[in-house]
Amino acid sequence: MKFSLQIQQQGYQTMINNTLQDEATRKRFIASITSAVAVNPGLQECTAKSIIAGALLGESLKLSPSPQLGHFYLVPFKKWERIGGKLQVVEINAQFVLGWKGMVQLAIRSGNYKHINIIPIKKGEYGGYNRLTGLFTYHPVEDDAAWEIAETVGYYGEFEYLNGFKKSMYWSREKMEAHASRYSKAYAHDKKSGSQNSFWTTDFDNMGLKTILRQLISKWGIMSIEMQTAFEEEDNADRLNLAPEYVTAKTIDDDRKAIEAKVYELTDEEKAEIEAAERAEAEQPEAPTPDDDF
User: Fold this and answer.
1) Which of 25, 45, 199, 279 sees the fewest Cβ atoms within 10 Å?
2) Rg of the chain over CA atoms, in angstroms?
3) Mean pLDDT (whole number) for 119-139
4) Contact yes or no for 227/107 (Cβ under 8 A)
């Protein structure tokens, strides 16, 4: 059944009505999310419940679902379960993923920030970073066209509170690469198989920008309730083994290229590795209970 028909069912209408009290807001929400699903083949395979739940979270945070704005994305992830001794896809769910532009919006709305900025550092621009003082020496590439095509060597973020407190952070490209390889299973899969399922693979710079901003704000910034909610929702994906990474879906570039959500696939080799690991675990003796340790 098409999503445009599913969303009209009584159960989903009740779900929306209980969350959105204003009729005009409900109509706008239904129109926008129906449109988003209609142009995205990946979302069309997802459960209607997960799409609506993710979109309602974005709406509650007053973020736009438009890919052009890049506030948040609904990204399909396959849920695997063992059936009859084999790993099979049981459903595909849409997962709410906060975009770095949405993160900036939430930070600004808190009313605490005077200035927030993140930028990729191009080859020739890096002049040194003092980890103790946070002082970053920047030698800008003045030519815009040359800057656009120059190699990215790192990622820099900074903010300033209204009271004058400042903080900055810099990660090299190598450090960001190590972070992505450690926390993104999809990216590790891509590197191993040569596929392009992860947005780290297809849009590394925008992923790097979000990561540096999240690291900066989560460690040193004031986080509003809305921002904490968005972060926790992304962390839920980690716990559910859906998307164990602090990432965002591909951000639309200045040419407004169309976004197409990726669905993570397990290779036959990875399935075999999982099955072998499960057999080995099943053969291990039962672990002692806490009482047995004392």
Assistant:
1) 279
2) 21
3) 95
4) yes
